[in-house]
Amino acid sequence: MALEKIDQETAKSAPAILSKIKNKSRFLNQSKNIYSQFHVRANRMLEILDIIKLPSIENIGADGCGALLLLAQHSYIGCMQKVLSAIEESLVADPDSFPVENIPSLIDRIMVIKKRKQKFGTQWSISENGKMETAYLIPVEDFKNMNKRRKKYGLGPAMKVTDLAYGAEKYPLGKGRAEESNQREMTNNEHRIYSRYFHKSLV
C-alpha cells in the first residue's frame, strides 16, 4: 500500500513537472528517471508476489489487490503479464478470490502495447502535440459490445476521459459516455510515445 501511495503521487505530479522542461534532452532524462522509479517499485512488488504466490483478497486484501494492479500497469509489459497470469491462476482456484473490476485496465494496457485493439475502453491517449484537448480513445474491438464486456467485470459504461494531472483541464472532451467517434488509430510515433517506458530495453 505504501508503494501504491508513492506511485499515485508520482503519476499525478509528473505531467506538471515535465511540462516545465523545455530542453528535449533534459525532458527525456527526467522522464526516464521518473519511470525508472516506477519500475523499482514494481520489482519490489514482484518480490512480495513471489512470497505470496497467488494474489487474492484473502492474502493481501481488496486494497492490496488494487495496489498490485496499479504498480503493474506502471512497469514493464513483462511485469504486467506476470501479474495478470498470477491473477488468472488465483481466479481459477477461486472465482471470488480477486476483485475483477480492477482487471480490464491491465488487460487493455497489455493489448495496446502489443498494437492490438483494447477490449474495455480503459485506455486513452493524446496526439503528438501533447495537449489534452486532442485526447482520443484508443480503438476498441467490437465497440458496440464494449459496455457489455465491462458489465461482466462489474464496471459501468466507459466514460469520456478525465485528466487527473495537476493543473490540467479535468474534462477535455466534455462529460458523458465514451462515443464510437472518440476513437482514433494511433500513429506509429504516438504508439512509440505511449509504450516507450513499458519495454525494459528502453529504460
Low-confidence stretches: none
Beta content comes to: under 5%
| Secondary-structure element string | HHHHHEEHH
Question: Major sheet: order of its strands?
Answer: 1-2
**What number of structural domains do the residues give?**
2
Count of helix runs: 7
Query: Structural class of the secondary structure composition?
Result: mainly alpha
Quick one: how many beta strands? 2
Distance between the termini: 25 Å
Q: What's the overall average pLDDT, rounded?
A: 89
Percent helix, as a range, is 40-55%
Q: Write down the Rg.
A: 17 Å
| Major beta sheet summary | 2 strands, antiparallel
What spatial form do the alpha-carbon principal axes imply?
globular
Furnish the topology, listing elements before pairings.
Layout: H1 2-19, H2 24-52, H3 57-73, H4 77-93, H5 104-113, E1 124-125, E2 136-137, H6 146-152, H7 188-195
Antiparallel strand pairs: 1-2
Molecular structure report:
The protein is mainly α. The protein is built from seven helices and two strands, in the order αααααββαα. The chain has helices at residues 2-19, 24-52, 57-73, 77-93, 104-113, 146-152, 188-195; strands spanning 124-125, 136-137. It has a two-stranded antiparallel ribbon with strand order 1-2. It is globular and about 50 Å long.
